[in-house]
Design brief:
The chain contains four helices and no strands. By secondary structure, the protein is mainly alpha-helical.
Length: 84
């Protein structure tokens, strides 16, 4: 998978994120950036009610960034790094 495809697949739920992590272009900065942002979004979504709504908004913003080939940090979570 190329970097953009890896980033897009990572936005297709936990299963898509795992596929992107295992089979994707994780050495590419663009793919790694979106894998990290998505992991944080999925973790925030585990928080009941407010976390889920906030995660949905971030998920949409992140997916738009992928389609526009941007590495724009998302509000409030953009600087958090889990994956190195």
């Amino acid at each position: 998978m190329d970097a953009k495809t890896t980033a897009i697949v990572s936005y297709i739920g936990w299963i898509g994120w795992l596929i992107a992590l295992l089979a994707g272009e994780k050495e590419d900065e663009f793919a790694k950036f979106h894998l990290n942002q998505n992991l944080i979004i999925y973790l925030i979504a585990l928080i009941p009610a407010v976390g889920t709504i906030f995660a949905l908004v971030l998920w949409i913003m992140g997916l738009i960034n992928v389609f526009q080939n941007e590495m724009k940090p998302l509000p409030l979570i953009g600087e958090w790094k889990i994956l190195k």
